[in-house]
Amino acid sequence: MSTTTPREIKFSFLAREQSEGSGAVVRRSVGTPKLRHFTPFLMLDHFRIPPGAGFPDHPHRGQETITYLLKGGVDHEDFAGNKGTIGPGDLQFMTAGKGIMHAEMPVQTEDINVGMQLWVDLPEHLKACEPRYRDLRAGEIPVAKTADGKVTVKVMSGKSEGVESLKDLAYTPVWLLDIEVQPGGKITQELPRGWNAFAYTLEGAVTFSNGPDAAKAETVTPYHNVVFEQSGDEVTASVEEGASESARFILVAGQPLDQNIVQYGPFVTTSKEAVYQAMMDFQTSSNGFERAANWESQIGKTMGRVR
Length: 307
Description:
By secondary structure, the protein is mainly β.
């Protein structure tokens, strides 16, 4: 019989709001001085985009982005002719590879658009791969429940309570679980041994185990990033019986990459020379950015005046 070890909490902190893009507001946790280069994770933004704001035409190289929409709608369009819209509960996995230029804009009819965007590093041997997109619709996401029905898990990537996600959505192995715990509910979630993991809290107050000592458990309120130690293979989350509301959080785990991270804005490489090369390639529309020359997205033209 195998024994499991509860992970300890390394630290937790509040993700504070900051401006990003044109008129968007984000709570950034991964990718800040408090949590930088937490391999394979580069950045996590909890974004709010009002109509008329957004992320107009911009490049990427060397990473993958995972966008999970919580409310509203977001259009995307790139220089290869890919375009589409994701709605509430949908995900988009975008692999920048050797180069992509795209725009991400809110659906203008929505009042406010809310979601999460996670940047994941690519293994060095895949940084020059062809760019690609995969959408995962809300209706395609398997749902797991605990036996008492008090915990619901959307298994976007990975597995929970014996339910497995769809495969091959990202090159870098990542688990992504949207977990809702009702008052009196409790879940012990397995995590791959040796992977880095964190939880980002969205609603309510959730209590996380902090190693094997139950007395050290930590209760966390919304918009915090809870970073777990790399050792151990499970995390327990619960909400007290008398709580007035359920708690919701995103649990993320990823396989660490043994490589340097050298990032300059949207370019993620393993050396300074490669960053300079990425900047030069983008400026000269070469080595993956050929289609960026004179390209303009249609959705970027919807940009309204930002107050």
